[in-house]
Design brief:
The chain is built from 2 helices and 8 strands, in the order βαββββαβββ. It is mostly beta strands.
């Protein structure tokens, strides 16, 4: 298995936040809960990109920022009614999930 770096976002309601990430093309691959009533931990994937959502208070800081490169940023901008900004390195949009975690999503310039 190749090495992989996986960001973890702290969320209040993992299932609800996963619905927001589904709009970005992420699907839930699995989940973990130590026991009934304990916080939920979800494993999400979008192609080769993984993201974990954790309801555990000790996991991750609120308002984390990650950068995701995609082949085309136009569909994402349209889905979220977000403005595309022209940066020297990419065309990008800035999004914030329901829990305040921030994403910059960019399409590299040729």
């Amino acid at each position: 298995m190749p090495e992989e770096l996986v960001p973890i976002f702290r969320v209040v309601d993992a299932r609800e936040t996963a619905k927001w990430y589904a709009r970005l093309g992420f699907v839930v691959e699995g989940e973990h809960r130590f026991a009934p009533g304990f916080p939920l931990y979800l494993f999400l994937r979008r192609g080769s990109n993984a993201l974990h959502l954790s309801e555990h208070e000790g996991d991750a800081r609120p308002n984390t920022l990650v950068y995701l490169y995609v082949d085309s940023v136009d569909e994402i901008a349209a889905e979220f009614n977000a403005e595309i900004e022209d940066q020297p390195w990419a065309r990008e949009v800035k999004l914030t999930d329901p829990d305040g975690n921030r994403l910059r999503i960019g399409q590299l310039k040729n």
